[in-house]
């Protein structure tokens, strides 16, 4: 990634970087909410990326209280999956309501994969914009900002038919930036030949709604749930990509979000410490 | 993929399709050459995609004789990897010489992954065009047609920094189609939002040099060497993609190329039969 010059993360030093640090609960393997919050707050982080699974059995209001009691803010709530299916739409409404209750900066939205039995990728893609617009209406009423996340092309069949920043930006384009943007997750986008251009484009429209960092371990052959590693343990130029986002005007939180079977074997506090250390090593 | 109309594979029926069928030796797990050729010729195929590993211990001339004795032609020779490294360039020259001796329709070229320790993807990509031009000089003297293969973005770090048809076409653009084109491998390109446009672009310049088909099993989570399945066992619209290639003027061989740990447990003849059946089921 060029340019590396002028990256705001580094320039004012560790204090500014610390204010932007967020740790996503899935990095800890999504333990029960209080365990996750204890571990993340103990690192000095002031922000948390939250998965809905972590507060199962609580109301969102109770979860919001627990987050506040730990001195934390919710940088993102993961997640809702687009669909015209009635059940899924009802779930998306609950997700929007939760994001509102939690004061989440954004609600992360995934496009979903191919419908079962389908070979019609173009058709599935064509339906995403409409489903997103429907959700944006609901979110707009609740004052919740949506963040559509393109996933790496290896997840196109199973998880998201939106696989590039360009696609995601095409979909959120009709909405003002304060209502809808994209998630820039370095694991998902690092390979994209258009990455630099599309980050600029996103910045111009205030469309970078959330940033997540991870790393890509060099050899993918062992499967995706070991491929996603802590920043610094792989080949992604996280500093360069964050510098590009900053140059494009992004000043928000930077979440460490990892899915890694090996990491998940460790206690939450140990993982949170590693996530915090890897954040500073990668960006400062 | 649209359009499905007018696909030459289907229209004139099984006889025409059979004339285009090629089976790649790696589908059989690259057994010794004679075993591979016996198994492939027994299916009625008249073409074979050959990996250099299969004739280890033979000269290319001896391998060419064995291929001819089985009534087969070489649709592609796999493969050489681009690099400025002296050792690799010497190997590439041998690959070009082998392709000439074998009368291979194309020599498959991979860009290679990131250099060890490097985080500079843009830099690695910038060097590919120069290395390709160097190889094209060597190939041109030998009358060998090169086929640059973009690999799926999940292989960007380890195997190829060229990950889209657009990138590959940008690189082969300066050369006439009869000297250099691209490999359209459905497993590598099916996810690409630009696929239809770039197939058209490739066809206009006679730049579709080889076509390979496989399938993508829906759940990628078990790792890439089980993700690549026989045509029909996954979600790729192989018929639609082949129809697009045909509409763009491609009339050459269609290779079944699979890398699959489960498949490789079976005897070569059984695998070759399955490859042949899957080819007709997917395209006729």
Automatic annotation (TrEMBL), chains A, B:
InterPro entries: IolE/XylAMocC-like, Xyl_isomerase-like_sf, Xyl_isomerase-like_TIM-brl. Residues 38-277 form the Xylose isomerase-like TIM barrel domain. Keywords: Carbohydrate metabolism, Isomerase. The keyword Cytoplasm does not apply. It comes from the Bacteria. Transmembrane segments: none annotated. The keyword Coiled coil does not apply. It holds the Pfam family AP_endonuc_2. SUPFAM superfamilies: Xylose isomerase-like. This is Sugar phosphate isomerase/epimerase.
